Amino acid sequence: MDPEDLTKLSSNENPHGPSPKAVAAIEDAAPTVSVYPKTAHTDLTERLADKWGLESEQVWVSPGADGSIDYLTRAMLEPDDRILEPSPGFSYYSMSARYHHGDAVQYEVSKGDDFEQTADLVLDAYDGERMVYLTTPHNPTGSVLPREELVELAESVEDHTLLVVDEAYGEFADVPSAIDLLSEYDNVAVLRTFSKAYGLAGLRIGYACVPEAWADAYARVNTPFAASEVACRAALAALDDEEHVEKSVESARWSREYLREQLDAPTWESEGNFVLVEVGDATAVTEAAQREGVIVRDCGSFGLPECIRVSCGTEAQTERAVDVLNRIVSEVPPA
Questions:
Q1: Where in this chain does the record put each Aminotransferase class I/classII large domain (predicted)?
Q2: What is the pTM of this model?
């Protein structure tokens, strides 16, 4: 099948691509890539600080949110320290911990509880870990951790614990960012990325927002010039195009509602740019859909072998995916 004919809804990418302003910035930056990105890095840091009402030292620009995870891990973990992470969840939390000679334990975001996230759920598993990851909206389920539950956690964990709130999908959620809590709590850090709503996944650009008390730590843990000149300039331009972000967010909200209403299979409410769908045999459904040119995510790797995750596409992509998946689900026998 011609790649142009594929409907790829497996990686939670922005189906509308990057902002035209970001594309123009990429083209403009191309002749300057022989120069280290010190100025662009500083400009982006200051712009993000202004956006969120922070001091510039509180914004840690990184190559993707993964880079920020590494920076926070370097700042927090000593050998044999542990992190607490959600299961299912983003595998890089534990990978980063182990790269830095730490380890990971999990708390379960349970299908039996409709993937509800609460402070009690986390605290029941908490045993003094140095870092606790909270993914909101959660991947692959789309559930959110309510503000009051996050505040309860911030006031309940031990002094040496950092709560890391991963808001990679935050733009799609109808809830406020936790960044405004940094003025009240010095044990909360927030991750953000330009990969999703801003459509810059291929450039690897993200950031962490940290408490003011951490201001001097960045220089000790960051990788010099890790975020490229092109990525920083594109991110700056993307921040100037609010219309493109709004279009991307509204499109995702339409798509996830259409998926939930039209798919002939159980789904869960989502605040991300994706929907989790229970299909019985996820591998069989995923493989059959791919043969028809629709690529979705088999959630067996998340410990959910009966579920697939469908990213929000354009209207045409979403409608095609629903047609194909409904036909396949009706034909594929249960696992």
A1: 5-325
A2: 0.96
pLDDT digits (tens, 9 = 90+) for 18-40: 999 999 999 999 998 998 888 88
CA 12, CA 163: separation in Å to the nearest integer? Answer: 25
Cα separation of 255 and 209, whole Å?
Answer: 30
Q: What is the mean pLDDT of the chain?
A: 95
Provide the pLDDT for residue 333.
75
Domains delineated in the chain: 3-16+243-331 (3.90.1150.10), 20-239 (3.40.640.10)
Indicate the residue type of 241.
Answer: D
Q: What percent of the chain has pLDDT over 90?
A: 90
Inter-residue long-range contacts of 152-155, CB under 8 Å, 24+ positions, other chains counted? 152/119, 153/119, 153/122, 153/123, 154/181, 154/185, 154/187, 154/188
CA dihedral 8, 89, 198, 7 (to 10 degrees): 10
8 Å CB contact between 282 and 298: yes
For residues 317 and 293, the answer to whether their CB atoms sit within 8 Å is no
Phi, psi of 60 (to 5 degrees): -110, 95
Kindly provide the residue ranges of all beta strands, DSSP E only, lying in 240-306, ordered along the sequence.
274-278, 294-295, 297-298
pLDDT number for residue 215: 76
- Other Cβ atoms less than 10 A from the Cβ of 185: the count is 16
User: Distance (Å, rounded) from C-alpha 198 to C-alpha 238?
Assistant: 6
User: Which is nearest to 267 in space by CA: 142, 120, 84, 106?
Assistant: 142
